[in-house]
Write a structure and sequence with these properties.
With 421 residues, the protein is an alpha/beta fold. The chain is 42% helix and 15% strand. The chain contains 14 helices and 13 strands. The strands form four sheets. The chain has a seven-stranded parallel beta sheet, sandwiched between helices. A two-stranded antiparallel sheet has the order 1-2. A two-stranded antiparallel ribbon has the order 3-4. Helix 2 crosses helix 5, helix 4 packs across helix 5 and helix 4 packs antiparallel against helix 8. The two termini are 15 Å apart.
């Protein structure tokens, strides 16, 4: 290990505040200690890290435990930060009003790696989340409504916007983007349903660039006023997603989109990170994608709630039906994620639209089952917990690696490793 931690102390303070101090003896005694406020960490950890007096400042604020008596200090600080940044406040209001340009700019902000942009993104996300919760608590309209697609929007404290998140994954060439184009167009025919698509494109391992070509396969959907399509580069993040996909989902929900679709890059069997940020995982496979043994292999297949054999048309129709039959046989031998839902395998055609309505019926059935049982709320809670720790770990590593003394020590260690010492 590059960093050897000499002492790590975690103690509970008043009103649910946690202090975490980290020091290292193997690198330098000057490594700054970190203090994190748990209530704000739950919403956006990087924005409220307070450094020691010798550490650089990044527009962060310190908190006292007494300030949590009436209103969370994190909420007060974010409100203050937004009031002092009119452009950021206008951006947030644009998102809450459903402006797609504001939403696009906000996603660009959260994807930025610049420190000042990260601080602004943290304030923006927390503000949007607080507004959604505030609107839910002060909403006097019915907590459950159903639109013309059959989509039942259930507003709860854990899901104040009533959205539903769908992960679309599968191997390269399975027709994921074409499926989303047909599926999304089917949903947006109904004027009261809004859909957002976050399409992840792979980045070059040599240049870091990305074509961002998924949107070109969704020309009709991207032009619809009730749809939002945003391609993003993976930037080397494994698992088929980007580092900030969870943040982008929250922004889309704040803009009023009912269904959020996350399309991963073309993935293999073990790339399952999207499962940690969606409510339902849909696996799209091409016809003749192997025999029954392929369906039995562990990984993304056993996590899928629905398997769709795409391209079930023309000469591939018989092969698609056979592949769906083999997947159904394999799924009977796998342990389901939930005792209340048995994964299904069906066929559809993105070209002709055959089977699209059936796909939506299954999705609605899954959503209704998980919401009534409480599993959907429990899953969202686990995902928020995992998201918090991911932010926490990423920020700790970022702070350590940005320390000048650590950089010098790492350079020496790298030279020793390269020389085989």
């Amino acid at each position: 290990a590059v960093v050897s931690t000499q002492s790590t102390g975690i103690k509970m303070l008043q009103k649910g505040c946690v202090a975490v101090s980290i020091s290292s003896s193997s690198i330098t005694s000057k490594l700054p200690s970190l203090t994190l406020s748990l209530p704000h960490l739950l919403s956006r950890a990087p924005t409220i890290i307070r450094h020691s007096k010798n550490a650089p400042s990044y527009h962060s604020r310190s908190f006292s435990s007494s300030s949590f008596s009436n209103k969370p200090q994190s909420e007060l600080s974010v409100q203050s930060n937004m009031e002092h940044d009119p452009q950021l406040l206008n951006l947030a209001n644009g998102i809450l009003n459903g402006d797609r340009v504001s939403l696009s700019r906000a996603i660009t902000l959260v994807e930025s790696s610049r420190r000042d942009h990260q601080v602004k993104a943290g304030n923006l996300l927390t503000y949007i989340m607080q507004k959604n919760k505030h609107n839910f608590l002060n909403n006097h309209t019915p907590q459950s409504t159903t639109d013309s697609t059959g989509f039942k929007k259930n507003l709860t404290l854990s899901n104040p916007t009533g959205s539903f998140r769908i992960g679309i994954s599968g191997p390269p060439g399975a027709g994921k983007s074409s499926f989303i184009e047909t599926f999304g167009t089917f949903l947006t025919k109904n004027q009261d349903h809004k859909i957002a698509v976050l399409a992840i494109d792979p980045s070059s391992t040599r240049t870091g660039g990305s074509i961002l070509g998924d949107k070109t396969r969704m020309q009709e959907l991207s032009k619809h006023e009730n749809a939002f399509v945003r391609p993003s580069a993976s930037r080397g993040t494994l698992g088929g997603i980007t580092r900030n996909t969870s943040d982008s989902i929250l922004l889309c929900e704040g803009a009023g989109y009912n269904t959020i679709i996350v399309e991963t890059v073309g993935v293999g069997q073990s790339e399952v990170s999207v499962e940690d940020m969606v409510d339902m995982l849909v696996l799209i496979v091409p016809p003749a994608n192997g025999d029954e043994l392929q369906g039995l292999k562990k990984g993304i297949v056993e996590l899928a709630d629905l398997i769709i054999v795409n391209k079930a048309d023309g000469e591939l129709l018989n092969q698609a039906n056979l592949a769906a039959f083999e997947y159904r046989s394999a799924l009977k031998l796998l342990h389901p994620k939930s005792p209340l839902w048995i994964p299904k395998a069906i066929t559809c055609s993105s070209l002709t639209g055959t089977g699209i309505e059936k796909v939506w019926e299954i999705i609605l059935s899954f959503k209704d089952t998980m919401e009534k049982s409480g599993e959907l709320g429990a899953k969202r809670a686990d995902q928020r917990n995992n998201w918090m720790w991911k932010i926490f770990n990423d920020e700790i590593v970022s702070r350590v690696l940005s320390n000048e003394a650590v950089k010098r020590e790492l350079s020496s260690l790298e030279q020793k490793v390269q020389s085989g010492v």
